[in-house]
Amino acid sequence: MDEMRKKIIIQEINSWKESRMLPEQYCNYLLALYGQGELPPSKSNETAGKKNDIFFGVLIGTFFAFIVFLNYFTEITIRMQMLMTTISILVFGLAVRRLKGRKIIFQMALMGMVLSLLLLTVSLAEFMAPGKAGILYIFLSLIADSGFYWAIS
Q1: Which of 37, 41, 66, 116 has the greatest CB tally within 10 Å of its CB?
Q2: Could you tell me if 36 and 15 are in contact, meaning their C-beta atoms sit under 8 angstroms apart?
């Protein structure tokens, strides 16, 4: 195989590896195969990836802190609090879908989504039956059961 074809194939495999179209092990195997046992130096995206992870981590933490502040330390109506918490659940859900391949950041987004759902459940129970803990317990058990069934399916 001529050098130009090998170079093009190796570039394609590197782009597949970066975009995660194939698992990293397969890409490494193909790179070793076409590079005749030698792995070509890959682009150093680790530092850029770590910076993005740090940025997303700070962003997720700040957004969750804002939602907690909004729910417990402001004087806005409970309906507005529930609306903002629902929007935060959707934002965290989008972050979970976007950050699925990354381990720590994915888990932080997932925790933010679950804790926002907990905040929404408490606000909804307080809105529907103020001062009655039994309603809150029922809501929390329903959320926990549905989360359990979602996790095992």
Answers
A1: 116
A2: no
